[in-house]
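Consider the following assembly input.
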Amino acid sequence: MSGHPDIDALVEEARSAVASARTTEDIRAVAASVTGKKSPVAEASRSLGTLDPDQRRERGRALHEARAAIEALVEERRSTITAEERASQLEADRIDLTEYIAGTTPGPAGRGRPHLVTQTRDELEDVFVGMGFEVAEGPEIETDWFNFGALNIPPPHPARGMWDTFYLDLGVPESTLLRTHTSPVQIHLMEAAVSTGGLPIHAVMPGRCYRRDTPDARHLPVFHQIEGLVVDEGITFADLAGTIEVFTTAYFGPDIHSRLRPAYFPFTEPSAEFEVTCTICHGEGCRTCSQTGWIELGGCGMVDPAVFEAVGIDTERWSGFAFGFGIDRCAQMRHQIADLRALTENDIRFLRQF
Ligand code: DAH
């Protein structure tokens, strides 16, 4: 290389070397060759000594500027390369979740979804929320008082036989149990409302319940109910009947209706069982509904004054209604599931249908 090369040409050579760098290693090597000790600018600087002082000063300044310009080119290229490399690394690391969603291998067996019981519970909640109810929950382990006593079912009451109870081996025998229904949540809500001045109540209470039943096509030992409770001024049986009918058509569809038949529950007076149009025959009569055209869904009634007294609600001022029915049973009726046990067997071929 000649002793005093053209400075603009040096910068142009460096520019094209820098532009040709594609990777971090490239740019490191190019940086050394255009700004390092053996680079043309460094050599040109070293040969400044052979010039006279005026030329030296002028060419020195020009070389200094040239070096700064070359360094800037290197830095610019380096940051572009780093950004590109980071982007392509991210792209390479990306896991394509759509592969799993499509249910193709590799990966777990297709996309998950809420269990049918969860879906049903969500839909029931939505219907009642749409009617102005709040959603509440209570414990699955209860004392005798909440599950029975406060609900007007004292120990010797023959109605206790209506619920085959799992007792827990804790403390006094038969004092702690797995709730047999969601009705004890009514007691929790009313007690809380009394102590916080939270009346009126318009609430539904979904949750898991337990009974010492042998599983069959219509019974599970672990099942789900949704309870309803309204406590307000001037509540009548007509409010109860209207609520059940609105719920029935909203959840099952406009051609499914409800009717109430006299029944007995210790915590309501009067009490009723509510039935809905058979979803199999739409009221024509079939084997499932024993030719009646109706299927029993749950119980309901006007809150018994004994229950209000147990929680300290003034029966002169307040009245209310309550209802309770099976969530699993709703799913069974709406989707025509022949055997409720299918809900707990976790056979993916069954669950996938919903
Ligand atoms: N708890 C009752 C049961 O599991 C169902 C029931 C009946 C709930 C009447 C109520 C009601 O709230 O008023 O058999």
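The chain has a mean pLDDT of 92. Ask yourself how this observation constrains the way the partners meet.
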